[in-house]
Amino acid sequence: MWRNTRSGWGLVSIIFHWLSALVIVGLFVLGWWMTDLGYFDPWYNRAPWWHRSVGMLLLFATLLRIAWRLFQPTPVAQGSRLERLAAHLGHIALYVLMLTVLLSGYLISTARGRGISVFDWFEVPALVSHLPNQASIAGEVHWYSALALLLLAAGHALAALKHHFLDRHDIFVRMLNPARTRRR
After folding, report:
1. What residues in the chain have per-residue pLDDT under 70?
2. Beta strand residue intervals within 58-178, DSSP E
3. Measured in Å, how far apart are the chain's first and last C-alpha atoms?
């Protein structure tokens, strides 16, 4: 049940999917909230520290998720040819946007040449820094790609619900419980 099959997602893929979704929404809300914090607010330094730390962990998890996906079979897609193509392109776009958001966040945080402390457990070094307008450009990319990611993720969720309730496909169920789709 850990690995994917042609009939369903394995537990590892399911955990990556739902954990990523939860963390992405949480980081978006935290990021939006912290932009309005005043200098004397007790969360002024703490919120960005949490945002960066969780963001770096999500970047590592996303890289592991992509590696896992490359070496695992993908369950057989359902729906019309156009729906299958849209799903395939949508998944690629979700991964591209996730990486864009996470890497641009890294570039914002390392623009001055300092690494990123991840919960004081370890430091991610600043491999790219001191580029002209690095923080500003990366900040724009970060914001707009985060918005695009949330919108695409909402479309992804709506499509899954459409397949579940209207088309009566087991696409949604396959991402909830690996045991339910193994009985074919």
Report:
1. 181-184
2. 116-118, 122-124
3. 14
